[in-house]
Request: fold
Amino acid sequence: MAAEERAYEIPQKLNALIVFAQVSLLAICFVSARTTGGWKLGLLALGFGVLMNSVYSTIHEAEHRILFRSVAVNDTCGAFMALFFPAPFHLLRQGHLGHHMRNRSDDEAFDLYFESDNRVWKFAVMYGILTGFYWLFVVAGNIAVLCAPFFYRVGFWSFDRASQAFLKAYNWKYQRVIQLEAVLAIALHAGIVLGLHIPVLHYCALYGAFGFLWSAMQYVHHYGTERDVLHGARNLWLSRILDAALLNHNYHRTHHENPTTPWVHLPRLGKQEKGIGGFLPWVYLKMWKGPQFTEEHVENRFAGRVIQ
Reply:
């Protein structure tokens, strides 16, 4: 094995240990939610939100197929962990890989609006991201993929360029797999709530905290950055412990410039870059200004390419 290959080797054993720890902690949270109430439920929900964002970081590694060397093992593990989101892994994967192609182009500039845009809709999308409704939209995809096929028609989203761009890159060969994953996700969560006798409000508290935190982080790394598909991101920070728990997801510019590099190597690469940095909550607060008008257009150079 060459030195360069060793330098960016996938930490398979560590990743397996992390997945085991995450699933174990999720089980503890679900069992605890049966009887925990009041302010303790609030703390449990906050911890669950952080834990599930760590789980999403694991899913993210699998989306890039850098969680395990074997594609079969990688995708199976990614699909299993995505059930806790809950969302079909192969749907999340198409959305995320498409994001890497569309980043900061007119097809994915949520912090900007153009003369031809519906300003009210653009503000609704932005504030939906900031408040957690984006997570609800993704979760609703479990129902849409099974019962509402019109949501997957480009024409239905004539008012939303980002959704049209997503569907134009959508690979229909994964549709049956996505539908199966949606059924499994629904079944798993029904089993968790009913089998463990978790009060519905307690379950909603856990996932409400996760949904808000996850959604709030989905564009914070790109807000106000340069209009470039690779460099249009920033490295942010929370704390050493939280950044490690999120598998260095906040080294986001580094990740966009090195999308096939496993998470353990991002800090070393990040030190070599001059990426825009900052404290994540501060950038999040700035986003509440809403989308800004621009006349600068950046076309999606990968428009029409289908996700593989």
